[in-house]
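Why run this: before we spend reagent on co-expression, it is cheaper to look at a predicted model of the complex and decide which construct boundaries make sense. The entries below are exactly what would go into the expression plan.
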Amino acid sequence: GAVVSQHPSRVICKSGTSVKIECRSLDFQATTMFWYRQFPKKSLMLMATSNEGSKATYEQGVEKDKFLINHASLTLSTLTVTSAHPEDSSFYICSASTAGETDTQYFGPGTRLTVL
Amino acid sequence: QKEVEQNSGPLSVPEGAIASLNCTYSDRGSQSFFWYRQYSGKSPELIMFIYSNGDKEDGRFTAQLNKASQYVSLLIRDSQPSDSATYLCAVNLSSGNNAGNMLTFGGGTRLMVKP
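The model came back. Tokens follow.
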């Protein structure tokens, strides 16, 4: 149980385009989803926390207009990187927690974004 | 002082030995503690969690929590080369700016198990 999927697993795009990443909880309802980014050999950095049906809470320094998060249902959250630039190239990972285990996070497999 | 601290390593142990990974945290009121394993290029996967003082065993893994000293550790018995990865300690800090279920991660300790 507690499986989280992400799509796509890898994406290459041109500078200036937008990229949407989907995060799905496959066998449970995710009351909260989290979005992280990770640069090579660096630790996880929390970008934002989203609860179903409400606006995401962004961490300090994360531009909410650039990283659009939508948590439309209890099994799906999306992260859209708008007007991507090469410095946005990173490993983006989502996680989800359930109502029953509110502080246990289950991670998706991650999406590797490369912006040319 | 970082809220959750780990030695970055690498920690090198021979195959079959016990690997001991340590983590300290700043908030004495924290209640929930997690260990994740992350292979290079992959996302973290949950190994185990612990809420109470003492030891919790799951197969070759044992988590140890000492709230008075504010540390949590992970022991890996009979270490295998496949255990080579970065181990992340995560804490649900009880500080006021926590959303309630947000985890604060340490920087991770890289473990290398040599055959």
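Residues 90 and 105 of chain B are 4 Å apart (CA to CA). Chain B has a mean pLDDT of 92. Bring this page to Monday's planning discussion.
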